[in-house]
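forwarding from the other thread:

> can someone predict this with NAP?

sure thing
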Amino acid sequence: MNVLGSTKILGVFGHPVSHSLSPVMHNAAIEALNIDFIYVPFHVLPDDLGRAVDGVRALSVAGVNVTIPHKERVIEHLDEISEEALRIRSVNTIINTGGWLRGESTDGRGFLRSAEAEWGKLGGASVVVLGAGGSAKAISFALAEIGCKLVIANRTRERAEELAGSLNSLFGNGKVSAVGLDLDTLSDEIRRADLLVNTTSVGMHPDVDGIPVSTELLHPGLLVYDLVYNPAVTRLVSEARSRGAKAVTGLGMLIYQGALSLELWTGQPAPIEVMRKAIEKVIKS
Ligand SMILES: NC(=O)c1ccc[n+]([C@@H]2O[C@H](COP(=O)([O-])OP(=O)(O)OC[C@H]3O[C@@H](n4cnc5c(N)ncnc54)[C@H](OP(=O)(O)O)[C@@H]3O)[C@@H](O)[C@H]2O)c1
């Protein structure tokens, strides 16, 4: 990689950040596009977030991704927030235009692009979303926007109810319902569903034997999207496939949300396959 006086800096703010796959993915894309950028990790402690954002302005950093735990708190430090990011109160991408910082969220669209690249259009599908945290919010808003009927199922039922309430008030009542994770309710909902999305961290490395729903609920004809991408094949994905369902991990979402960020910063279409190969190489090694 050739760093020149003219090279534009991109990066990711996180705490921790050393595990982030974004530098590998973005630098591979930058090299393939032959553009004068570099992407670096920035370890930003929660108390330093405001000063780190000022640093983006002061150092003319062209753009940054924002990851855990800064996605919500960063909002107060920015000049402008996209409608989508404001709705879910989460920013994962900052674009610096001459010192004016705009916050966007590419998580929901990244999920949708990835899922539709696998399975085709999802508009109008019946979806059960497991979890009601940050990623569930981004994904549920994206799915509701294309007319999906949603059931939000969460361990803490009140959080599911809160999310369903905001979705119903925005997109029209009745399309979104909230349930807990009890087997009987989930069994009915998943039997009727086209798509099951796991947005909980259950099954993530090192607890690789974890599975967020009982295996007996997985049926042929169900599409299963597990946001967890480490391990490369989660228990949920392998159990779903062995029962005849089509299932993928969240690697695609990781790639597409990054691709959308890169497109916002550079104005060029991102090289998806280059980004995928770069990440797969790291995950396998
Ligand atoms: N593929 C991607 O690009 C991508 C992007 C974003 C996130 N992710 C992954 O998605 C997962 C969630 O991230 P997030 O930012 O949404 O986290 P979050 O805001 O902390 O939400 C976590 C959710 O998981 C639920 N949960 C946690 N442990 C559970 C358990 N043992 N049993 C049942 N439910 C449990 C929580 O339920 P309660 O409300 O009851 O606590 C909550 O709904 C992580 O594994 C993350 O790595 C992947």
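The mean pLDDT is 96. thats all i got for now
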